[in-house]
Amino acid sequence: TKGIHIIYQDQFAPYALLIPTRNDRRVFFVIPWLGYSLIGTTDTDFFGDPDKVDVEKEDIDYLFQEMKRIFPKKELRKDKIVSTFAGLRPLVFEKGAPSKVSRQHTVEEPASGVVYVVGGKYTTYRKIAEDTLKKITSKKLVNTEEEYPLYGGGIITEEEMRGDASKYNLTRETIQYLVDVYGTKYRDVLALANQNKELLKPLCSCSLAIEAQVIYALKTEMACSEEDILYRRLSLGYFPCSTGRCRDAIRRIMKENN
Q1: Mean local confidence (pLDDT), 194-221
Q2: What are 151-159's contacts with CB under 8 Å, separation 24+?
Q3: Tens of pLDDT along 145-191?
Q4: Sign of torsion, CA 222 228 229 235?
Q5: d(Cα 58, Cα 25) in Å, to the nearest integer?
Q6: Which of 31, 183, 192, 194 has the CA that lies 20 to 30 A from 86?
Q7: Can you give the pTM of this predicted structure?
Q8: Handedness of CA 99, 70, 180, 87 (dihedral sign)
C-alpha cells in the first residue's frame, strides 16, 4: 500500500497526535518535527511502478479533509506545505480493504530452504529479526532490549544541555536541535569538534545543523553520498533553502574527508 506524508509549515500541538479518520476508521499522525508538523500517512492500494510512487492531489485532499475536522478553526493552506514524500508499505496478502490488512510480518521457509520475511514495519525490526532467527537456529537468543538498548535512548537533563552549550560555545537552541536528532548520542557529534573547533560552525543559515554532523554521518552512520546526508541523515533536503549552501558545505566536507 502507498503512504504519503506532508511537512506543513505550522505546528498544531506541542505533542504528537494519533487521530482516527471519520469514514474508514484508519489512523494518521500529526507530529511536531524540526519546527514543522509531519502529517500522515495515507493507506491506499498501489499497483504501479514502485520507482514512480508519488504524492497525488487526492492524497493531500484526504489528509486536509481530516485535519479540518480535527482543527476546525485552523486555516489549512496548500501554499504552507513545505514538502511531501511518498513510500510503499509491503503487506502480507489478504483480501479486503488496505486499512484492514494486518501489519504483522510472517517468516516462511519453503522447500527450497530459503527463509523469507514478508510484511512487517520498520518499527518492529527487532521482533522481525528475533522471529527470523528462531526459524533458522535452536540456539538461545540474546535479549536485545537489555544488551542492545535503543540507539540514543536515555534521559538528558537540562543541566547537561546547558553545560554542553557552555562548553562548546553553542546556543541552547542548537543543543536542543542536536538532542532532537541524536538523543544521548548528540555528545558523540560534539566530541568530533574536540580536535577541530571549525566543526562547530553552522552548516548553513537554513537550519541549526553544524558541520560535525556531516562527519558523524560519514564515519558513524555509514552515509555514502551527498543525498544520503542531505535527505537520509540530516533531513535538510525536505526544507527550503534559499542559498543552497548546505549542499555546498556537505560536498566540501565530503571531499576534505574522502
Answers
A1: 96
A2: 151/183, 151/185, 152/182, 152/183, 152/184, 152/185, 152/186, 153/183, 153/184, 154/183, 154/184, 156/183, 156/184, 156/186
A3: 888 888 899 999 999 999 999 999 999 999 999 999 999 999 999 99
A4: negative
A5: 18
A6: 183
A7: 0.81
A8: positive
